[in-house]
Amino acid sequence: MLLTSESGIFLGGVATAEATDATGSPLKVSYVTDGNTLQQVLSSESGQIVYPANVTTYAGTVWYTSGWVTTKPNYIVNVNPTALGRQQNAFNVHKYHVQHAKAVLGTYNVKKYWNWGIERQFLCHVVGAWFPSGTYNMESWQPALHWNQIANPWDRCNRIK
Fold first, then answer.
1. In the structure, what pLDDT confidence band is assigned to residue 77 with cuts at 50, 70 and 90?
2. Would you tell me how many other CB atoms lie within 10 Å of the CB of residue 2?
3. Contact in structure between 19 and 28 (CB atoms under 8 Å)
4. Higher-pLDDT residue of 89, 68
5. Same-domain pairing of 76 and 144
6. What is the pTM of this model?
7. CA-based angle 15:20:23, to the nearest 5?
8. Could you give the CA distance from residue 127 to residue 95 in angstroms, rounded to a whole number?
9. Could you tell me if residue 160 is inside a domain?
């Protein structure tokens, strides 16, 4: 679940990593709001849930903890995702990832180093967050390809050299 202001500014989010009942059967998790309250709703394919349930949930306002640029000999834009940032990878939240990454990079780095190719690689890292990459790094010398062309275990969002 994504939390935004009335004007669409990212405020935070809630995501479920995994959920099982007492027998280890997987559960589906959804969220509903009731006024100012967020409620977690559990369901199972069988229709029965054996309690207690074990649900791993990430919630927060930070998707990236830091961002920086290295410049030898070309430049690489780097951002560190949080656990919540790695979980929130649906297509409808891409613009919020871009907003937050730019915020941690700072205005100077964004103006000087952020471009279409860097953004394509960045979105690939967002979508492919299940690849164990740690820091997302976007290399300036890579071609500007759509994320779905480089989201694979070989390229890992940066073309094979």
1. very high
2. 14
3. yes
4. 68
5. yes
6. 0.69
7. 175
8. 12
9. no
- Is residue 132 very low, low, confident or very high in pLDDT (cuts 50, 70, 90)? low
For the chain, how many structural domains are there in total?
A: 2
Q: Measured between alpha carbons, how far apart are the two ends of the chain, in Å? A: 37
pLDDT tier for residue 4 given thresholds of 50, 70 and 90: confident
Is 43 a member of any domain? yes
Is residue 52 assigned to a domain?
Answer: yes
Looking at the structure, tell me whether residues 35 and 84 fall in a common domain: no
- 158 domain-assigned: no
Residue 47 token pair: 């229709």
Do 70 and 146 belong together in one domain?
A: yes
Whether pLDDT at 96 is above 80: yes
